């Protein structure tokens, strides 16, 4: 997999303290890699939002998640693959929050899926061990298609001092 492009980085002074600086994308990647829980936002066919927590793995410049083929998020993605994934700290004055916007693309390549299956087990433990069959994860809950989201735009929200960084990926 080629090296992902570095994003254009911009601090938004409207939402940042006077002494704040833009966050580095490498820091954001480290936080995306370490985060255990993400919130996925999708859009229902009738236009209403749907938000749900899930596990995700950062690998090769993108976030990856799986879901049952008949779960609400999977049904939504069939109609509209545009998503936002959010992770961070549920506190006002500490931590760093991240929002990743992009298109959820089904991933079916067996080699990449096996690498992701290993990454899930390494990150989340043995209860998150998947086999790979017919272009999807297979586990205790049955078949689970896997989706990849390469950031198109990402936002970082620092809290000490308050700062909002936007990363824009021009090649995505």
From TrEMBL:
Q: Which Gene3D superfamilies match?
A: Electron Transport, Fmn-binding Protein, Chain A
The UniProt record lists the keyword Endoplasmic reticulum: no
Q: Which residues cross the membrane?
A: none
Q: Which UniProt keywords apply?
A: Oxidoreductase
Q: Name one GO cellular component term.
A: cytosol
Q: Which residues form the Pyridoxamine 5'-phosphate oxidase N-terminal domain?
A: 28-128
Q: Please give the superkingdom of this protein's source.
A: Bacteria
Entry's InterPro entries? F420H2_bilvrd_red/Heme_oxyg (IPR052019), Pyridox_Oxase_N (IPR011576), Split_barrel_FMN-bd (IPR012349)
GO molecular-function term, one example from the UniProt record: oxidoreductase activity, acting on the CH-CH group of donors
Q: How is this protein named in the record?
A: Pyridoxamine-phosphate oxidase
